[in-house]
Amino acid sequence: QAKAAGRNNFVLFDPAMQTRVTLRAQLEADIRRALANQEFELHYQPLAGMRGQIAGVEALVRWRHPQRGLVSPAEFIPVAEETNMILPLGRWVLWEACRVLVRWAGDPATDALEISVNVSMVQFHRPDFCEQVLEVLAQTGARPERLRLELTESLLLNDVECTVAKMQRLRAVGVSFALDDFGTGYSSLSYLHRLPLSQLKVDRSFIWGALTEGHGAAIVRVIVALGKTLGMTVLAEGVETEAQLAFVTEEGCHFYQGYLLSKPLPEDQLTAFLCR
Ligand code: C2E
Ligand code: MG
Ligand code: MG
Ligand code: MG
User: Fold this and answer.
1) Residues whose beta carbons lie less than 5 angstroms from ion ligand 4
2) Where in this chain does the record put each EAL domain (predicted)?
3) If you write DSSP's letter for every residue of 82-137 in order, what string do you get?
4) Ligand 1 mean position, distance from CA 60 (Å)
5) Whose CA is nearest to atom 11 of ligand 1?
């Protein structure tokens, strides 16, 4: 109230902040409701070797909102992370991905495929993260060797000992790890070699820059060399043109992903794609 706003009183009501808080609270409630109503779904983007052999898929979550249609994860994952709704959502994604692996097992078209699941740092740094993954694997019966978890460089900002211990614990049962969007975060090269990573995913901004920016090609070359030196496979993200594919093949990438091969697809369309 204006009357109470005397000389020594702070103005507590900031309309812009109030709007942000309200919006976030609404989105949080909306995500909670959406989980209960099963409005989330996974789409799958194929990953291939350089001659087009499909090696696996990346699971990407979408929100089929009753009013807004299909909502992009770029819009709701950041809010889900801020509100901790990423914990139940991330668990659901993991569960769905493992169930898909079980559905795919035994079918020659899909049996050998790996599935990559994005893990938010909020999820990864929970003390019971390993238990959760092990529990989902056990409850679904999915083969851990088929599961790859994608982490981002921000994990290098946290306790490296603890990060390594968690990764090794899951590595021991066969789960593997990829470093996603490499080059866009805080890369601490002094720690990178300590992480049991099997794959480096070169962020698409570098793939796009490679053929258009002055030092673009050289940057990709250095990232590929770094990954190989550390014993990882290197995947080029966001390959959209034949020219980009030719370039990353020439540079020695092992795998690629991008609209040139396929957009992320719902499960039935993915199955059709694989049967082609
Ligand atoms: P990401 O993990 O780097 O996933 C790749 C993103 O690039 C996807 O966007 C994919 O659709 C897009 N993409 C792939 N190829 C191309 C291409 O050739 N051109 C262009 N322009 N884009 C391409 P999407 O599905 O919108 O996901 C955005 C981000 O949201 C993901 O980036 C990931 O960080 C996050 N995300 C998605 N699903 C999950 C999830 O289940 N859990 C968590 N924690 N994060 C998720
Ligand atoms: Mg990813
Ligand atoms: Mg990525
Ligand atoms: Mg990305």
Assistant:
1) 181
2) 24-276
3) HTTTHHHHHHHHHHHHHHHHHHHTT-TTTTT-EEEEE--HHHHTSTTHHHHHHHHH
4) 6
5) 264
The pTM for the full model equals 0.93
- Going by C-alpha positions, the residue among 44, 194, 198 that lies closest to residue 113 is 44
CA 196, CA 239: separation in Å to the nearest integer? 26
pLDDT at 2 > cutoff 50: no
Three-state DSSP class for residue 163 = helix
* ipTM of this predicted structure: 0.98
Contact assessment for residue 200 and residue 178, using Cβ atoms and an 8 Å cutoff = yes
Q: Name the pairing type of β-strands 69-71 and 54-65.
A: antiparallel
Q: What angle do CA 85, 88, 89 make, to 5 degrees?
A: 75
Q: Cβ of 157: how many Cβ atoms within 10 Å? A: 13
Predicted confidence at residue 4, as pLDDT, reads 46
Residue among 115, 14, 24 nearest 76 (CA): 24
The DSSP output letter for 166 is H
User: Whose structure tokens read 């980009």?
Assistant: 244
Structure tokens given for 233? 């496979």
Q: What CA–CA distance (Å, rounded) separates 95 from 137? A: 8
Kindly give, in sequence order, each residue whose CB lies less than 8 Å from that of residue 250, ignoring residues fewer than 6 positions away: none
